[in-house]
Amino acid sequence: MRYTSVLIVLSLFLHMLTPSLLASIIGATHLEQCTQSGDPDVPGGCKTMMVVELTIESGKSTESVTFKNVTLLNKSTGQSMTVMSDVSLSLSKIQASLQGSLVYWSNFPSGLDEYTIFGTDYLVTDSCRDRPDVHTCPTVIDLDTGKQVPYSEGTCCSCGLMPTFGYTQRSRANLKCDLFGSQSAAANCMRMSQLQYQAYKIEPPIVFYTITVTMNYTDVNGYKVSNEYIISPSNPVISAEGIVIKLEGDFSPPQVYRTFESSIFVVPDPKTDPSNPRHSMPMATSSLVLPNGYFTSSSSVCSKIGTGYKAYYTQPNFCMAEAGSCIDGQIDDYWKEDMAKKDASKATQYLLSTFNPDSKLINANGNLMLNIPITTIHNSFLTIKAATDGLTLYINQSPGKILEGTGLETFGAMSNDGILKVVATNNGTLISRYYVFADDCSPGITPMPAQVFTMDPSEIKVLTFKVHTKSTDLSQYHCKVSLTGDDGRVLDWRIVYFNTTATIIKSNNYTDPYDPKVIDTTSKQSCSDVCTNDK
């Protein structure tokens, strides 16, 4: 028996099973699809097809396309028979994410520390030594070569003759320049922290996701059959049982994704300082993304990640400089700065959690990748072709509510420290999709992208928005926060008020040799007439 075409009878149902429907029908149409082979011995054929165009949003959703019966038509006899029944085609898209391959660069200590060993300056001789062969600071050995690390002998600072007889000056170690004092000399030593960070360069990320298609049906013998297929940007089309599903592409995002080409990713090396509590923290909290400019590959450059013993030893005016000079700007400094902001409920700048608290490292077939989930709306465009003549769309819409507790701490104007928190709940009985908008704000607030998410019944969801003002002035602002359903209906709203402090303007602290207020701009005086001669 020869079957030459497939007909799917009755109706096509696109409905949400569990949890919420994150798909939107763009269009559906019937067309007659005909085939021709060019071979007169191979007859062609036509069949009526329904083409459905829809978008699917990432998240914990499952859509189901259900066909009651699938029949095959024998053209020679004109008879048809049912070969499958209760065909269910389920679609589920995982959370879309940015994935960037990591290229190992180097290991860096998390921080640099300076400590002092005090001694006595005996005018003619003193107890401090800083020669490569004889030094007060402990010997630092290069484990690869077994030799002493150059410039690691530290630097001695002493009071000398004049301070001992009453002349005082600022000193790095705050020496006590008393005659025969026990702290009239000091060896200033540098050490690297035991905890090290692995540093990686980040390749331009791609948007990654997969859509799982599960086909369940009952065959002619009454057996239940289940097959699973995967659609992704790298495998965009499947054809199964006469049904063709094609990933056409993605709609443009509401905001540009970060590319990270000017950043370095650093993560604690688990082989170093094993008792350090940072190893037990979530990776999104212990690791950072830092600008390239914070790093150096030269050990002779001060105040960079990568600063070495040479820079510390050879820095100018060593004994007159502030303690700790040249060794700031380390990974620990940026980590502590962001953790202080996080504890104060302010927006962070460097922590990996800044981009998404669920960011993580993944190992894909030996390729280490940074995975940052996309929290903004990400729609994929699909087409489904099937021989059917009906389409029914069902949408879950459960009520929702914004709970008390929505608020915003006071933050500095024109900074990125403002965080608006919205606490919402699904107070219905169905799993549904929701949108939260923070709009209709006072003038001077930079627009914030909407967020989309799903909630189970009684689930509570906490969302955060970064708030940025365009003005540097101290002021009071407000925004309207709205919770809407998938159909656009407003379910709840709140007005959120918050304050900003005036922007702190940072400028160079220079001392001019003249007072500009004494210059009369209406006269012919010049600066040489009124300015001092201080050099």
Could you characterize what this model shows?
The chain has 5 helices and 31 strands. Strands 6, 12, 13, 18, 19, 20 and 21 form a 7-stranded antiparallel β-sheet that branches. Strands 15-14-5-4-1-23 form a 6-stranded mixed β-sheet, with no helix packed on it. A 5-stranded antiparallel β-sheet has the order 2-3-22-17-16, with no helix packed on it. The longest helix is centred in the middle third of the chain and has 13 residues, at 331-343. A hairpin with a 4-residue loop joins strand 14 (211-219) and strand 15. With 535 residues, the protein is mainly beta. It folds into 4 domains: 5-94 and 210-253 and 376-393, no CATH class; 112-192, no CATH class; 199-203 and 258-373, no CATH class; 400-501, Immunoglobulins (Immunoglobulin-like, Sandwich), CATH 2.60.40. It has helices at 161-164, 283-286, 309-314, 331-343, 527-530, and strands at 5-16, 23-35, 45-57, 63-73, 80-93, 97-109, 112-119, 121-122, 125-126, 155-158, 185-192, 196-202, 206-208, 211-219, 224-231, 237-240, 243-250, 263-268, 288-291, 360-364, 367-373, 379-386, 391-393, 400-402, 411-412, 418-426, 432-439, 451-455, 460-467, 475-485, 490-501.
